[in-house]
Design a protein that fits this description.
Elements: E1 4-10, E2 13-19, H1 29-42, E3 50-55, H2 76-95, E4 101-105, E5 108-110, H3 112-118, E6 122-126, E7 130-132, H4 144-154, H5 156-165, E8 168-170, H6 171-176, E9 182-184, H7 189-200, H8 205-219, H9 238-248
Length: 256
Amino acid sequence: MSGLIRSHVDEGVLRVVISHPSRFNAMDRAMWRCLRETFTAVQGHGELLAVVIEGEGAHFCAGGDISEYPQFRFDEAALRSFHEEDVWRALQAVIDCDLPVVAAIAGNCMGAGVEIASCCDIRLASEGARFGAPIARLGFPMAPREAQLVARAVGELTAREMLLSAAVLTAAEMKSRGFLNRVVPEDDLAPELGRMLEGMRSLSPMAARLNKQTLRSLAAGQPASALVATAYGYAGAREHREGIMAFLEKRPAVFV
């Protein structure tokens, strides 16, 4: 049975749910394509403040759906198409999102789950979450673009440990290595996420978009000097003026 990428808007936040419970939310090809479509559509939605990616039930995402692998993994052209068209285009769509993207991680976060989480801006996890990419047990490496993404997010030493020794790491270990922002008790993940989103609702959506664009350009290797020519175009924007004047007038800013 195929999985789904479900999404709905909740008080200005798009909740994106990885749903394939019978396989611990493993990603199949259709789900990768739907993830790309979901995030491509987000770019044109002016009323949203943030996006949350989470798994259905007790797990975030246990990797790829291995049951469908014999359909395409044993042919070079088909395998390249899967990774470069289905997987990477979906991950790139998440990376390209101009809204803050928060991962709420519980249970298994393996392989594809680590890749999806690596695209997010902020990562929260419950204490019982587990992280890894033990695909060497299946006889294949991580695709180049995906490996670069993961190595940047988890750190090169951790990426090597995951890929070369099939290490599975705890949430506490991943926080100590800089991959996770916060680790909370199992029952506190949803409340902690709610508190974070509530705080974000008081912030400038324009500032978030511009920060995302700047950080994305810098991560892609553009020098900061190349961004200066267009960096200050927000000077006359309503949100800019509202934020400054609200502070001076000692009142809450109304950005939206």
